[in-house]
Amino acid sequence: MSLRIRTSALTALTAAALTAGTVLTAPAAGAAPKTAAPKFLSATQLPPHPTSSWTAGPVTDGFPEELGLCVSTEGVPAYDYRHRQFWTDLDTSAVQLTVVTGTAAQAKALAKHYDDLIRTCADRIEESSPDVEAEGRDYGRMPVEEGARVRGLHTETSWGATDIALLSVGRDGKTVTVVRWGQMGDFGNAPVAAFKKTTSTAVDKLY
Fold first, then answer.
1. Rounded CA gap, 112 and 37, in Å?
2. How far is CA 12 from CA 50, 74, 119, 132, 150, in A?
3. Is 97 within 8 Å of 110 (Cβ atoms)?
4. Which of 16, 45, 91, 166 minimizes the number of CB atoms within 10 Å of its CB?
5. Closest by Cα among 148, 193, 151 to 169
6. Taking a C-beta distance cutoff of 8 angstroms, is the pair 93, 102 a contact?
7. Is the Cβ–Cβ distance between 83 and 59 less than 8 Å?
8. C-alpha closest to that of 166 among 151, 185, 144, 184
9. Would you give per-residue pLDDT tens digits along the chain (207 residues)?
10. 114 and 63 in contact (C-beta within 8 Å)?
């Protein structure tokens, strides 16, 4: 069944899991000025699915709700947010966010902020949702541009729904990108090596 129809346990938990993160200092002039738009992943650059090809949606302005379980705009200045959604014919989906800040220093702070939110996401889910067990894993840093980090998140509800997600945060200059891949399953179903390749491509492809 398509994820566009199926509502996963993670989506149902999104509103409950949102919490305030570290507040970043907004630039004095407000939102970051417009600059050359960063490039996005293509469908063929996602981790290969064993039985279905990926479809890429259009690049869209704004922050994607698919990241709301772990990452949000709360406490973050009104930067230039754009995203692209991806999906297969089955239960696998992905999304890429790009955020253009005003300076490299602001982007460095934002990348750390997002990574901290992902790192602590499992604990926040369990605190807000007693019926859910969550576990996060750190798959390490990647030496691409100004760096990237890959993490995993598994959730299982008391009624048996289980979901696995891989998330990464990377930076190139004053631009930050976040990539999320997800499907039903557990850590044994996570294509970590392929997702690391996707993350490296996403950061390297920005400019």
1. 22
2. 27, 19, 20, 11, 24
3. no
4. 16
5. 148
6. no
7. yes
8. 151
9. 333 333 344 444 443 443 334 345 444 444 544 557 999 999 999 999 989 999 999 999 999 998 988 999 988 888 999 999 999 998 899 999 999 999 999 999 999 999 999 999 999 999 999 999 999 999 999 999 999 999 999 999 999 899 999 999 999 999 999 999 999 999 999 999 999 999 999 999 999
10. no
Tell me, rounded to whole angstroms, the distance of Cα 23 from its chain centroid: 19
Q: How far is CA 114 from CA 66, 158, 183, 196, in A?
A: 14, 28, 21, 17
Q: Which amino acid is at 127?
A: E
- Angstrom distances, CA of residue 97 to CA of 10, 15, 61, 165: 18, 19, 10, 15
| Residues 9 and 132: beta-carbon distance below 8 Å | yes
Closest CA to 153 of 120, 127, 178, 176: 120
Give the relative orientation of helices 104-119 and 121-128 as an angle to the nearest 10 degrees: 50
User: What kind and span of H or E run contains 95?
Assistant: strand 93-100
Q: What is the pTM of this model?
A: 0.84
Q: Give the residue among 93, 202, 61, 67 at the shortest CA–CA distance from 142.
A: 202
Q: Are 43 and 92 contacting, i.e. CB atoms less than 8 angstroms apart?
A: no
CA–CA separation, 93 and 104 (whole Å): 30
